[in-house]
Amino acid sequence: MNKKILFMLINMNVGGTEKALLNMISELSKENYDVTILMLEKYGGFINYIPNGVHIEYVKDYKDIKDLVNNPLHMSAITQFKKGHFIQSFILVYFYLLTKMMKERSLFYKYILREFPIFQQEYDIAVAYAGPMDFISYFVINKIKATKKIQWIHFDINHIGFNTFFASKIYKKFDKIFVVSKEGRKHLVRKLPFLKEKTEVFSNLISPELIESQSETGFGFHDEFDGVRILTVGRLSYEKGQDIAIQALTRLIHSGYKVKWYCVGEGSSRVHYEKLIQKNNVSEHFILLGSDPNPYPYIKDCDIYVQPSRHEGYCITLAEARCLNKPIITSSFTGAKEQIKNGETGLIVNCDEDEIYQAIVTLLNDSALCKKITVNLAAENVDTKSELKKIVNI
What's the domain count of the chain? Predict the structure, then answer.
């Protein structure tokens, strides 16, 4: 009989967490596993990439509580008061004070989910996959029936508003906690040492063969630019550091280098970045390409790949650039040193405009170093499919 596994996340937006999930379920044998993806929202550019045979479920009526889950409680209380919903406003004020006192929201989640039934389907494994989003962790523990339950952490808990009080209460109810990097696991165990025995590293799955194959399909650069192409792939947001990239690119242009910097990705910071690009007069040199579920043709054709993130959990796009043997520069976020050997398979620098600028200049002026990095990456084994045995063991 097939093992039934459920993965729960917010949506299937084009991002590293969602890509890692697609990579993993693509490798799970259909003969042995019956996979379900449970989403809060029917949304995302990766929905059409979910493999055939995977069941897709949505949390019914989540839209009715979405604002309460995502917005500050005191703001929701004010909104309800302005609408004349005084009782609801009073209740929200009560929970606002209660959550401030208890420093976590589990009682509030219990209240807003009071009319949501427990899922009738029983699973062998249920996974809170969306990283440290407390609501999903609470939902998996309280609304999903499963023999084993797993919490998956994709981010650096030191940088995403991790609620230690909530985690100490809820995470102990999970049978296993997977963290996507060794350094990320150290951060978690340092905050919650009693979880050490049930916590394990599970690297994001990478298939070099699939990446190489997809790099030959789809679309890449359309312009006729004959200078040096620099590429960054990632959501347009503060933590991904594209603002630092814009500043570094501005200095490169002022220094006379013939370069263009391209960004594949979409996000909430697009308008801010567009204004920053215009302010620095680099509209012809810093190109926002938008979202693309297949960024590999761009990675294959770029000259330098730069990951300027302020923080990451593992960074799957960095691993993908490694698969395509690109000269790499990365900031020193959590997990970077587990992927890159500084000076050998890439350059690791602080998340700083000047250091990123200087690293790019180094590669622009040192073709031997670029070749060395490319050769060393080609000799590496980036394939992580062996991580699947950790699911099998559970």
Answer: 3
Q: Find, among 278, 270, 275, the residue nearest to 238 by Cα.
A: 270
Report the pLDDT value the prediction gives residue 384, as an integer from 0 to 100: 77
pLDDT of residue 388: 86
Query: Which residue is listed with tokens 């490798």?
Result: 27
Residue 386: predicted pLDDT? 83
3-state secondary structure of 356: helix
Do 313 and 153 form a contact (C-beta atoms < 8 A)?
A: yes
91 and 185 fall within a common domain: no
The gap from C-alpha 255 to its chain's centroid, in whole angstroms, comes to 34
- Spatial separation of the C-alpha atoms in residues 149 and 178, rounded to whole Å: 11
> Is the pLDDT assigned to residue 219 strictly greater than 90?
no
Which stretches within the chain are classed as H helix? 16-27, 66-70, 73-82, 86-102, 106-112, 134-143, 164-170, 182-191, 208-214, 242-254, 270-279, 296-301, 316-323, 336-339, 353-365, 367-378, 389-393
| Domain span at 78 | 64-115
388 torsion bin: left (phi>0), alpha (psi -120 to 50), beta (else): alpha
pLDDT higher than threshold 80 for residue 385 = no
- Tell me the residue type at 196: K
Does 388 fall in a domain? no
Average pLDDT of 194-220? 90
The DSSP letter of residue 122 is E
Residue 340 has pLDDT above 90, yes or no: yes
Per 3-state DSSP, what percentage of the chain is helix, strand, and coil (rounded to 5)? 45, 20, 35
Mean pLDDT (whole number) for 364-385: 92
Selection from 166, 131, 99 nearest residue 9 by Cα: 131
Give yes or no for a contact between 7 and 144, defined as CB atoms under 8 angstroms apart: no
Which one, of 151, 155, 129, lies nearest residue 195 by Cα? Answer: 151
Q: Is residue 390 part of a domain?
A: no
Q: How confident is the model at residue 230 (pLDDT cuts 50, 70, 90)?
A: very high
Are both 111 and 240 inside the same structural domain? no
Residue 39 binned pLDDT confidence (cut-offs 50, 70, 90): very high
pLDDT band at 132 (very low <50, low <70, confident <90, very high): low
Shared domain check, 71 and 29: no
